[in-house]
């Protein structure tokens, strides 16, 4: 394993919203050294399909790519993603394939068909007060929902993770995660996804990020992780040893999340401890992990 080999660092703020193009998607790139991170195609409203194409066609060959989404669902707590469903997949890659297969007719890498599936729906909390009978795990309802082991690690760090089975509220990440699983399924055999795939000695690698971890590393408290001005962004980037990003005045938090996290990845990638967090081996192929959670 040679984490210090990366020369480019990409952070992608993702969106699970309906439709083709999304204000919530931002792609940022940082090179080696301490130069300013930059937005890829600034001002462009990305589609999820365009992000996939960019990863496959335009990504530098030595990039560490962070996707702000949950790469899998909780497994370790119940011994299954979907306890009680005979089609519950045994690992993350099988989960990605199942989501993609059920959503084959959903355009733009959407995942509405999966959460509407009669068996899968039992495990999700959806809008309109619809909560599946197994949202809490087993035969339980209510509560905050199930968490992955990496989300428990995030919580111990002071973050406020949300269950990927929760599709309601501003903090929910379930929709982003499910649409992201369709993208990850399409990367199979083309780009490795750590830690579902082992970290190779060369080439680009995709992993999961949580932008709040980057903000905390830059001195932002978990409850104030969002940055909406270039002045605040410059201060946070300076805390990470990075030159300021171009621009002045307001900035939307999708762009600032991506820019800050790309700069954070540049430094964090060299920390060997982040590639070997406690508890990783038990869940690497099922739940995956968030890079930086420890």
- Subunit arrangement of the protein: single chain
What percent strand? 5-15%
Largest sheet, spatial ordering of strands: 3-2-1-4-7
Number of helices: 9
End-to-end C-alpha gap: 18 Å
Number of strands: 7
Percent helix: 25-40%
Radius of gyration: 18 Å
What summary fits the major beta sheet?
A: 5 strands, mixed
- Category from helices, strands and their pairing: alpha/beta
Number of domains: 2
Query: What's the SSE pattern?
Result: EEEHEHHEEHHEHHHH
Mean of residue pLDDT values: 95
Low-confidence stretches: none
Morphology:
globular
General description of the model:
The protein is an alpha/beta fold. It has two domains: 155 residues; 93 residues, no CATH class. It has nine helices and seven strands; from the N terminus they run βββαβααββααβαααα. The strands form two sheets. Strands 3-2-1-4-7 form a five-stranded mixed beta sheet. The chain has a two-stranded antiparallel sheet with strand order 5-6. Strand 2 and strand 3 form a beta hairpin. Helix 2 crosses helix 5, helix 6 packs across helix 8 and helix 7 packs parallel to helix 8. The protein is globular. The two termini are 18 Å apart. The relative contact order is 0.21.
